[in-house]
Each structure stands twice: as C-alpha cells, then as structure tokens.
Amino acid sequence: MDKSKIVLITGGNKGIGLETARQLGKIGYEIILGCRNENRGFEAVTLLEKENIKAKTLILDVTNPTSIHSAVEQIEQEYGLLDILINNAGVFLEGNVPPSELELSVLKSTYETNVFGVFSITKAMLPLLKKSSSGRIVNLSSGLGSLTLNSEPTSEFYNVNSLAYNSSKTAVNALTVFFAKELSDSPIKINSVCPGFTATDLNGNSGYRSVEQAASIVVKLAIINSDGPTGSFFDEHGNVPW
Q: How confident is the model at residue 210 (pLDDT cuts 50, 70, 90)?
C-alpha cells in the first residue's frame, strides 16, 4: 500500500477484535481501536505498538449516540475518511436459558449492542467510508445466526437454542443484505463473517478455536479486491447459508 489504509474495529481491545487489529496492522494498515474503556484501549495499543503496528484508541460505546457522533468527528478531523469498518463489538448475556424463560430485558440489551449498535455505527460511518476508494464493512456474525443451520437437526448449531444471541446475529445478517443492496452501485462492500466457536471472554473462553484462526476470515473479507463479494456470509470454508 502506498498510503496506510484506516481501519476502525469496534470492541477492538481484546479477543477477535484485537487479533484482527494485529493481523491487519502487520500488513500495513493503520488501526483505530474503538473501546468503551480508555485504559484497556491504551493497553491494547501498547501491545500492538510493541509489534511496530500503528494504532490508536478511540473511546466508543456503540450503544451511545453521543459517543458515536464524537467518534465520527474525531476520525473525520484526523483522517478525513475511513477505509474499513469492522463491527466486532458484541455481547452474549442469556446463558443457557430456553426461549420461554428469557427475560425481555436481556433480549433488549442483547439487541442494543449486537444489532442496534451495528446499525448505528454503520450508518454513522458511511459518509467517511464513501470517501474511501475501496470502503469495506465486515460484520461479525455467527453460524448461530443462520436460520438454515438452526432449523436443521443434523447441524452443530441445532441444540444451541439461545434466542437472544442467535436471533441478534440473524438480524446482523439482515443488515448486511440490506446495506449491500443500497450500496451495490458504490465501491463499498459489506459482508458477514462467522469466526467459529472461538475462545473469548464472550463464552468464558470455552471455544475450541483460537483468536488467530477466527481473525483470519475477518481479515480476508476486510481486504477483498474490487471484484470480491458483497452482501454475503462466510466462514473459513466459504459461504454460510442464511
């Protein structure tokens, strides 16, 4: 790259977000870590800088409109545009609760971050992404969000009947499709990715995949060429059914 491309990763101070930052930084991208906690953001930046990665932290709460507006203003003032948006921030709040016992407040809180947060950030950052010659948006989804796999008894996801989290990722996939249709005549490409069941704080580090493995598909979709896909859903093996 002649000039470093600018990447914003929400929830970027740990887990898949931080590893995605590391992998993109290693190939020359300039990283902005969107974090709710400034100190944790600085700690993450310090780790990246030790590997000669250009990174900075940005206070960003995807559920707070004021925080989002401030983030847009800061990115615009400092960089003038955004090349890549990675909607990584997410929560899993319900535990192993059947749908009939799920509290409405938990469903709402899950959607507040996982769906409305993704929508709000994407909408707010679009003007900056449109200033890039090759804007890219990657939404962190999950195979658990696939209605096809959720309704197939032989699927590995069939018995994970977590209504709030799973349906929030289904909604993320819907956002991907509808934004992709709107942006089909622009250089911007938007896709959903399933990183697999990865050991992170989200699941108490019970996942069987490493963050290095998980981040690889995120990075792959973040740097696709102009002839690459948009409005699609991928894991490391290829297309995932909606």
A: confident
Q: What are phi and psi of 125, to 5 degrees?
A: -90, -10
- Reduced to 3 states (helix: H, G, I; strand: E, B; else coil), residue 221 is helix
As given in the structure block, the two tokens for residue 173 are 């996939």
Helix and strand numbers (H, E) in the chain are: 8, 8
Decide: helix, strand or coil at residue 148. helix
Task: Quote the domain boundaries for residue 54.
Answer: 6-239
Q: Could you tell me which residues come within 8 angstroms of residue 8 by beta carbon, excluding any fewer than 6 positions away?
A: 32, 34, 58, 71, 75, 82, 84, 85, 86, 125
Whole-number average pLDDT of the chain: 93
Residues 221, 241: Cα–Cα separation, whole Å = 17
Residue burial 77-97, b: 16+ Cβ < 10 Å; e: rest? eebebbbbbbbbbbbbbbeee
Q: What is the pLDDT of residues 43-80, one digit of tens each?
A: 999 999 999 999 999 999 999 999 999 999 999 999 99
Name the domain count of the chain.
1
The string of pLDDT tens digits covering residues 4-27 is 899 999 999 988 999 999 999 999
Dihedral in degrees, nearest 10, Cα atoms 222, 228, 230, 236:
-60
> Residue 29 domain-assigned?
yes
Report, as residue numbers or ranges, the catalytic residues.
Answer: 165, 169
Question: Residue 126: inside a domain, yes or no?
Answer: yes
Beta bridge partners of 56: 32
**Cβ atoms 11, 60 nearer than 8 A:** no
